[in-house]
Design goal:
The chain is 28% helix and 21% strand. It is of the alpha/beta class. Helix 1 (12-24) packs parallel to helix 2 (43-55).
Length: 106
């Protein structure tokens, strides 16, 4: 199973909680690979996300979308750049990935 999240630093804690719930409640699933599109997430918060995946022996790939080319007028405090990342998922995910489930952090 392939899972996608996206977050900025403000929502990284929610991504962590959602990821923790996902992994805790799906221990019976053999493979869960998680991809998180991140924008300006502090290193400490990235390390916390990585430690959750390590605890459950799951693959986590943090994908920096800071250079995602979206006109500035589209994103705001309420709609950060990370909210648009799912629209560009195919640009950032491995070419051999056939399917993935996008989950909102909140």
């Amino acid at each position: 199973m392939n899972i996608i999240y996206s977050c900025d630093n403000n929502y990284s804690w929610l991504a962590g909680i959602s990821m923790l719930s996902l992994l805790e409640n799906n221990k019976h699933i053999e493979i869960i690979d998680i991809y998180i599109f991140i924008d300006n997430v502090e290193e400490d918060n990235c390390n916390k996300l990585l430690s959750i995946s390590k605890k459950y022996n799951r693959k986590l790939k943090l994908i920096n979308i800071q250079d995602l080319d979206i006109p500035e007028q589209f994103y705001t405090q309420r709609w950060p750049k990370s909210a648009f990342a799912r629209l560009y998922a195919s640009d950032y995910l491995p070419n051999d990935l056939k399917s993935a489930l996008y989950l909102d952090c909140d």
